[in-house]
Amino acid sequence: MYVRGMVSVKVSVKIVVACLLLTHAAAFAGLVVAQSYPVKPIRMVVAFPPGGLADVVARIIFQPVTQQLGHNIIIDNRPGALGAIAGDIVAKAPPDGYTLLFTTSSTMSAVPTLTRRPPYDPVRDFTPITDVGRVTFFMFVHPSVPARNMTELISHIRANPGKLAYGTTSATPMIATAQLLLAHQLDALRVPYKGDALTATDLVGGRIQFAFMSTVPGYAQAREGKLRTLATLMPKRSAMAPDIPTLEEAGVKGVSTTSWAGLFGPARLPDAVVDRLSREFRAVLTRPDIVDKLGQQGFLAHASTPAELGAYVKEQLETWRRIVREAGIPVE
Fold first, then answer.
1. How, if at all, do strands 260-266 and 126-135 pair?
2. How many CA atoms lie within 13 A of 135 on its CB side?
3. Alpha-carbon distances of 87 from 10, 37, 60, 179, 319, rounded to whole Å
4. DSSP conformation class of 248
5. At the N or C end, where does the chain have fewer CB atoms within 10 A?
6. 115-135 pLDDT per residue, tens
7. Residues 24, 53: contact at Cβ < 8 Å?
8. CA 119 from centroid of its chain's CA atoms
9. What angle do CA 247, 133, 45 make, to 5 degrees?
10. Is the pLDDT assigned to residue 104 strictly greater than 60?
């Protein structure tokens, strides 16, 4: 009996030692991965076309991060389907840190709430890395529209039911416009586009009459007098256009959509890789010169930890579900 006990103790000690060795080995392996990653260029899938705000923001951020990582970040623009195409690519990619996703609420909030069978789960199929910031949208109108403020625009749409067309590039302008039309019982025709550049082209050409668009390229067209800017979708006035009121200041209530951007990897991305990426991106997103460059584009930089971004994704999912339900937007 005594011998059995001794054998049992020896076996237990061996098990404990083995577990400790495995733990230290795993920690060491993680340290090696963190120190060696990356060893080759990183493919960054961007859910929007070249030339749009998301693409411009990505390029501003990626250049200094590339210098810190020592390897190129290659942008792969994959627009369409509200960002589902880009999201699906990354969700199915190997979790090695060499295929990442730069996207907005369209991919992570809209696709899961507006699609009956989304190709991925925004919580289960991705690894959050860092929040990137908030996208500024403005309401732009064609100069032929006799409206110099939101009240006049609403009156003009009401006086011409079904005759005016508006453009939507992503889920945020689609949801925001739906809320606006619902709140004021208005009737207008929606025309979907794959990017703000295409929306701006048709708006400048008068083929559509109004649209919520990001600052690139909408605000540039407005500065040249080709479009008129009526209000910002942000809860506060934009630093790049402090004379443009918020919707609430313009007398419009019932529109409460936020467009955010974030960085993700496939599910089960190694902790060491996540930590390295999060650290490098957060360092860049808090640099005053980068914050200023992004601000000039109407983009508000906002870095976060991976856990904070993960919690925000879940919170925004519930918010978007509520908005879609209240606005009566059909799920396709």
1. antiparallel
2. 28
3. 52, 23, 21, 26, 20
4. T
5. N
6. 999 999 999 999 999 999 998
7. no
8. 17
9. 120
10. yes
Q: How many CA atoms lie within 13 A of 46 on its CB side?
A: 21
pTM of the model: 0.78
**232, 298, 301 from 130: Cα distances, Å:** 25, 19, 11
Q: How far apart are CA 39 and CA 111, in angstroms?
A: 33
Token pair in block for residue 246: 């918020």
Per-residue tokens: 258:
């936020």
Q: Is pLDDT of 42 > 80?
A: yes
161 pLDDT more than 70: yes
Dihedral sign, Cα of residue 323, residue 259, residue 280, residue 78: positive
Place of tokens 């979790």: 95
**The residue type at 227:** L
Contact call for residues 38 and 97 (beta carbons, < 8 A): yes
Question: Nearest-5° angle of CA 175, CA 180, CA 186?
Answer: 120
Six-digit token string for 148: 């110099």
Residue 181: burial class (beta carbons within 10 Å; 0-12, 13-18, 19+): middle
- Cα 210–Cα 214–Cα 218 angle in degrees, nearest 5: 60
Q: How far apart are the C-alpha atoms of 115 and 206, rounded to whole Å? A: 31
**DSSP at 331:** P
Cα gap 232→237, rounded to integer Å: 7
Q: Which of 93, 110, 102, 114 is nearest to 46 (CA)?
A: 102
Place of tokens 């919580």: 123
